[in-house]
Automatic annotation (TrEMBL):
GO terms for biological process: D-glucuronate catabolic process. It comes from the Bacteria. Pathway: Carbohydrate metabolism; pentose and glucuronate interconversion. Its EC number is 4.2.1.8. GO terms for molecular function: ferrous iron binding; manganese ion binding; mannonate dehydratase activity. Its cofactor is Mn(2+); Fe(2+). It holds the Pfam family UxuA. This is mannonate dehydratase. It comes from [Clostridium] citroniae WAL-19142.
Amino acid sequence: MHSKMRVVLGQFQTFDEEMAKFALQLGISEIQMNTPALPGEKIWTFEALKDLKERIESYGLKWTAIENVPLIFYDKVILGLPGRDEQIENYCQTIRNMGKLGIPMLGHHFSPTFVWRTTTQAPGRGGARATAFDERQLRPGDNAFREKMARKRHLLDYDVFEAVDGMTADDLFDNYRYFMDAVLPTAEKAGVMLALHPDDPPLRRFGGIQRMVTSLEDYKRAMEIGNSPAWGVNLCLGCCSEKGGRDCALEMIRYLGVRKKILSVHFRDVQGTLPCFQECFLGEGNYDPAEILYELGKVGYEGIIMEDHVLKMDYDSDYGHRARSHEIGYIQGMIQMMDFACGEK
């Protein structure tokens, strides 16, 4: 066992002094940003990334990863629409810019619908509010549902549902191969790792929309496409738990971990599995967090771990500082205890 796993602060878009102090006071020295609020409608320029990186480093923090560019940067790539080659070139330039600045990881998904929940107000522990998903509430033929999904994800200047109606998993994988064939050589040269996040919830199809990564078999297929040292997985333990609870999480870790394809970990859990689940605090979900962390250590994982979705606690901020402090401290304590038990300290 080892002590090279470390917690980073993630899942925010805007960096400021408050966020910097929050990280530092929690004992965190690295950050990940999800779709950072940077100027640009098609690409992030070197200058914009450089300015943000310098502000981050002025507080003694390291910018370790970016998760996701805006969907409008590569929506045509996902859907195989005209204009995707221009988007791919812009994506490659963003990778080059990151490489020049020493930002080593770029996460991505390949879903037209991104994350979806049927409520954000499910009652959680002590009255905290949780997101939840119930497939039985979906009405695929309901135009209002489809319009709500489009508005929620800001899906663009064309009818996304017209583009995806009739798409199959094979179509999405073909589009993903086209994308990876173009961007992986750039990533290898730039020294930037590309981490693929699964679909959430891990349903093969819902609301009439096909999705690509919903199981270990899907990840195996994506891994064959991403046959490069620059390709790996953003392992979302929450999505694993949504799919099949503890067993699914352990299966993912063991298969992907021994192949050194886990690049980052989202450490969260849910209660219940598809077709119905609810997010929860660590320690009250489908798996034992200590067992999962120990399994990551057993397969030799040495990368970053971050809190992900958190419950809405009373009197908390929109970002969820209270809930995130709890999750982060929980994970930090487990890592320290694992190191102690294994004789690392």
